[in-house]
Design goal:
Four copies of one chain form a homotetramer. Chain A contains eleven helices and eleven strands. By secondary structure, chain A is of the alpha/beta class. Chain A has two domains: 7-143 and 265-308, Rossmann fold, CATH 3.40.50.450; 145-261, 3-Layer(aba) Sandwich (Rossmann fold). In chain A, the strands form two sheets. Chain A has a seven-stranded mixed beta sheet with strand order 3-2-1-4-5-10-11, with helices on both faces. In chain A, strand 10 and strand 11 form a beta hairpin. In chain A, helix 1 (20-33) packs across helix 9, helix 2 (44-50) packs across helix 3 (83-96) and helix 6 packs parallel to helix 11 (317-326). The longest helix of chain A has 22 residues, at 144-165. The N and C termini of chain A lie far apart (58 Å). Chains C and D meet through helix 1, helix 5, helix 6, helix 9 and helix 11 of C and helix 1, helix 5, helix 6, helix 9 and helix 11 of D. Chains A, B, C, D: InterPro entries: ATP_PFK, ATP_PFK_prok-type, PFKA_ATP_prok, Phosphofructokinase_CS, Phosphofructokinase_dom, PKF_sf. Chains A, B, C, D: It is an enzyme of class 2 (transferase). Chains A, B, C, D: This is ATP-dependent 6-phosphofructokinase.
């Protein structure tokens, strides 16, 4: 490939996700394989503005494929939302001879990259790295599968104590304004009810469902609640509501929080990140820009970032139906 | 649905795989939901021949979604390969009023079911349960994803000691005559080389690759070897070969063996098994037979079992390429 | 042994802990081995009052050694605190021919057993089952070691995201009014500061410590807080306090909650529970009562329950010192 | 403390064990805390002979407490067994100004250190780091507890498949010539029989035991075999023997191998290693030498290395008895 691109930057931005390191490794090693220079940009756009760069070769990324977090660190950066901030960032890239970059992150990070490209015409390719799976153009984002396993393992533990005490637990999981984590992990954990932003069951139906569950002879119940759920009540308020209206249950609450972001990535996320990293570098060398790498039907594809950040992968209606049948 | 089918059997057969219990649970609960009776058939076809049956309701499958193995037990059964054996099995099903059954297993189990259907005209639907992912008509079999995570976690541990001692490890993984586990887990574990039946690199190339790896400054190396690899040497012989021809390495061997079959299923396998179990029961009630439930592009589809057992999901050529780039 | 005791009950009471099932199994199998009948009492003292009993033989406890929770269930029971409740319980035991029982639980459960023994003269032996390690007469309670591993694994995950974002996390762990979990898991997780009820550092010192940590070049910080900590502020208030007085940090909070009670027990807890279960049954057959089985210097010993519930295992002053040195 | 010792080396030697990094971290941070310089010696005695040293400060050991293996690497070194090799090593230490060192390893490494001390009068303190727990003077070596958890988790997985197929598994575990891993992990995993070097049951008794187990209604059996077992047969030969003499079983074999050495250390091992690292540095500064740090009854104590390497912690006879009762 006789590309004009001689030096590629790689940056992680926004919330971290397991598998980001595997994606960094793939970008760095693909550059090495294709004899292009590679530079790590630290602390997201903040580091771009500060010129916090480090040259990376194939050995810089040894033994990171199985590490959670991101060795490049990440940050949310207000200054990059200003023209001045982006100018500084561009000047630094220019000075360092960086011709293009791969940005690993979510929709906020992609949006920043699009604006930057429009202003300074520097090629960019995105890799979707977020546990929330809230990006259009890929059936799975890097980190989503790992987060599902983490949530399911934790709920397995909570069920041990729930069923020893015949208790009802409301478990809040991440996902911002979408319910992918809640729905999938809820089905995987055998939850009795799953509350997601996409479907507002209403509180009455929740009570009905819990009554039915108790009547059916179940000794314990887990209700998985997406953080973006639209019932208008958080898990603590749900606890109070149920205790008031359905006093047959001893209710507890668990907010899983940030533990969902960490841990060694699953095999799926490592492989996905590796494939995406390869394709991202190749796309830049082919002269492409403003695209996101995604996976669809087990093929790596490219989608305009402008589309990717507008939509979401739809919630799986069939899986909602499966979840209902499973709570029989 | 006004189906003639009033009582459905469920059976696990052949090698066990994580997620089989989730599939059993889904079959049982879907029957309960659709008001069809459900009967568990124990110990595979052996139990069918012995009439080892037990009625199952929604509560029979409480708290099994996260358990490895199969509560119905499994077995390989020589007698079912005889006409007499199958006649006994049929008589038992008849006596118990079982109109149809769902068989969870691999190609051998499916083949038995096909023959049985041809002889006795009893409807059957298959759910692919095997860690090997060697069935056509589904991008993933139940158990495959869990086995990948298990292998990758174990190799992470082996790498700890490998890199502390600058050693080379040959790690043999399962997969019968296909390389899906080896290729995916090899990429996920960051293996320096992956030997699979589908690609015979030859031993010379292996030596070249190991030399290059050492020269590049890597301190340790993991070579993942599929049990069905065609180099003509098992891992112990590979060790001897490399020690003789490339004495720069301190070589060790690890045969992972049956630990790859056990453990709590991953979230993906639990969800997959749940979806497949629902579809399997519905297909029977729709009057279908001799089909296997599969997943393709995140949709649950049906494939004739006769096709499913003839072919394999193809090894992913692009992933082989990714694996080569990653070992830079 | 020619003991008058022919039938032994086994009961789990109070909060559940990993390893309780291993203790149940040990009690049941030791009874079988010594040819004494064994009866499981369900749902703690509530089940004793309701006569919720089931005969158990060696096979009743197959495949439970690795399961969290308690197959006998547990409950806190107000009625057992009344004379009438205890009379009912005693009548049930009498009617079932139960001569003595082993109670697996914490200080509340032991106290109940002592009162019961005083009133009805039925021999009882206690096995300390609680994650909190707050019982005198044993260096470790069943469940403590598992909870430490669970906490440390979760904080490892939180650190992935903390260090990717240069954040400070306050992590609240269980332990009621003692700091054993916080101190041990804090040292094990490499926490920068550990707040326990036994040592009130004061908030000023916390700020100093965090300032020093930042100055020393650490990129992230974990502060482990025992739920019984005496600073007078919970983790949410600590977050606010630090944000106000030390705005150099981006602060997050995580309350681990009930996930700490579940999961497969560690090898240590399984072995400990097995040894304790054997000794508990033997002690009853030797005519002993009102004693608790404990471990000290790797020997299984007996302590009067009256002593066990009065005191606590002291917090390890040397370990506090180690924790300070480690945060250098 | 006004010690003559101004610079302390730290070295890991022999087989690696989980928790070695936690011990390194503790040595380094204690030096920093006490304002003594600290130097990492790489690749065991080989690196000492090669002068492979690196200055370490408190930040050099960030985020390693939870990593398996050893960041200092390890090796077995023939040259250090020669006078010439040791002279080179001493010259390097001298040139680097290293006054004393802490050696983390097993009996071979300790023996080397003793000889070295005798010849060159340089103070040395040992920290027992080995999964085998085969050192006198400490109830637990660093890495033992983690290895037990690893083995038990793996056997849990093997039991999933064993009990699905009613199989008998011989599982070989590490431990060199002692049976601590086999006995403890065997009890923890609920093994039906445990073969250790300290007790030769004889093959007849094994058959009796397996017959009894089958007759008692158990569906599967796990026999844990220490690698140093004295029955005169390895697990493959045991399989053949049982298949010939007790054809009621379908027998499989699993050699766990090096996966037992890796993985994140347990909380216990992290805390133990931290406490030992602190005491090791303090002992050197107090002018002590030729001692090993150990734990006894939860206190950190010092034992002459000459004693530590002569004996073993005795196998726990009471635990053997417990294991027999548990297989009822």
């Amino acid at each position: 490939m006789a590309s004009k691109i001689k030096k590629i930057g790689v940056i992680t931005s926004g919330g971290d996700a397991p598998g980001m390191n595997a994606a960094i490794r793939a970008v760095v090693r693909t550059c090495a394989y294709l004899k292009v220079e590679c530079v790590g940009i630290y602390r997201g756009y903040e580091g771009m503005i500060d010129g916090d760069f480090k040259a990376m070769d194939a050995r810089s990324v040894n033994n990171i494929i199985n590490k959670g977090g991101t060795i490049l660190k990440s940050a949310r950066c207000a200054e990059f939302r200003t023209k001045e901030g982006r100018q500084k960032a561009y000047d630094n890239l220019k000075a360092a001879g960086i011709d293009a970059f791969v940005v690993i992150g979510g929709d906020g990070s992609f949006n920043g990259a699009l604006i930057f490209n429009k202003e300074f015409d520097i090629p960019i390719i995105g890799i979707p790295g977020t546990i929330d799976n809230d990006i259009f153009g890929t059936s799975s984002t890097v980190g989503f599968d790992t987060a599902l396993n983490t949530v399911v393992e934790v709920i397995d533990k909570i069920r041990d104590t729930a069923s020893s005490h015949n208790r009802l637990f409301f478990v809040e999981v991440m996902g911002r304004d979408v319910g992918h984590i809640a729905l999938n992990a809820g089905v995987g954990a055998g939850a009795e009810e799953i509350l997601i932003p996409e479907e507002n069951l209403g509180l009455e139906r929740l009570l009905e469902s819990l009554k039915r569950s108790k009547a059916s002879g179940k000794s314990s119940s887990i209700v998985v609640v997406a953080e973006g759920d639209k019932t208008g009540r958080n898990v603590f308020e749900l606890k109070e509501y149920v205790e008031e209206h359905l006093p047959i249950y001893d209710v507890r609450v668990s907010v899983l929080g940030h533990l969902q972001r960490g841990g060694p990535p699953s095999c799926f996320d490592r492989v996905l990140a590796s494939r995406m990293g390869v394709r991202a570098v190749e796309a830049l060398l082919e002269g492409k820009t403003n695209l996101m790498v995604g996976i669809q039907d087990n093929n790596i594809i490219l989608t305009p970032i402008s589309k990717a950040i507008k939509g979401h992968t739809k919630i799986d209606k069939e899986l909602i139906r499966v979840s209902e049948i499973m709570t029989t």
